[in-house]
Amino acid sequence: MSALVQTIGPDALPLGNQAASAVVFESFDLPSANQRQLGAPHPTGTKIPLALRPSQVGREHINLDDVITTIKRLLSQDKLLTKKLALHGTLLFRGLPIRNADDFSRFAHAFGFKPHEIIGIVVDRPVLAPNIAPANKAPKEVLIHSHNESPQVPHAPEYIFLYGHKAPSKGGETPMSSSLELFQRVQDEMPEFISELTQKGILSKITYKKDPQYLGGSTLKEAFGKKIVDGDDLATRRAKIEAQIARYGRGVHTTWEWLGDDEGVVVTHRLPVIRTQPGTNMPTLFTGFASLYTRKNGTEQLYGDGTPIPEKYLKHLVAITEEIRVLHRWEEGDVLVYDNIIAQHGRQPWEGGQIDRVVMASLFDGDEVPGAYGDADWAQVVQALDD
Predict the structure, then answer these.
(1) Sign of the CA dihedral 17, 100, 163, 28?
(2) For site-directed labelling of 352, which of 40, 79, 337, 370 has its Cα 20 to 30 A away?
(3) Containing H/E element for 53?
(4) What is the pLDDT of residue 312?
(5) Do the Cβ atoms of 302 and 166 come closer than 8 Å?
(6) What confidence category does residue 21 fall into, taking pLDDT thresholds of 50, 70 and 90?
């Protein structure tokens, strides 16, 4: 499939004139296990993550207000930080005075993005501060493989912020990798898989039940029941849940079936796995295949015609993902910012107690949704409808 591709180079986006800023950011290198040069189609020399920290001068005297002022100023310079994200996929901010959920919320909101509303949430994310929640509450032994955020539903955030509030002594790293590079590798090594995904898309079948189906999972009410109140009868509860499902705006490409005895609902979406990056039109593999293949969690994904996806493809995709990722070793106070359209994240197990690793998340929408790869009606994602 042909695509109009705009080439952008890593040296084309300097951090701008920061001389008038209270805080000056400088890039720095990380150990090779924690940072790598991205492969095609990224320009030569593009690293993931782009690591930024306050410069040595005045570093010990910075405060959060000054950091926020600088972030806003950089974004006013032709959206420089947003363009950095679109190039590198992930930014690391280190050495900032972020010490709690409220600090993290202020920092994340400084980027000016619209907070993302999760419709059909599949994990338990209690609110800790404005638009801040635990990244994931699954047990520490659980490996959460690389994935784009919310690949199982039509409405996904464009930007993911992660804040390391507490880091374990061993393990607990957060993977990062490029969905653009993943597409290129899969196309080169499994072109027939790309062809199948282009022609068929996937069916994503998610079962929601009254009670969590696994530790750290969500309930049906948490997923779709924000309008339900005590005293609602069965018909009213179902009508309110169906109204929330309809907000996906996917028409015939989202269907649902109620389970017996008021136990829950199965929601099925026909979705594109291959999407395109706004601004470049480069294809990106937007998926949770690796995570779903290595961990069953109530979501089933098939080809769009209802046939199973061959295990050989999924196994090979996992191997590629592990080859092109790096693991972020958390230091307390670190913030990772992902462009969710083109970058994947995950979570490694860790030693010690469950409370020895505390990572918080904040999700935001962008100005544009990913573009379609192909002409099928189901291939285009849309913003969710207002409530």
Answers:
(1) positive
(2) 337
(3) strand 50-54
(4) 95
(5) no
(6) low
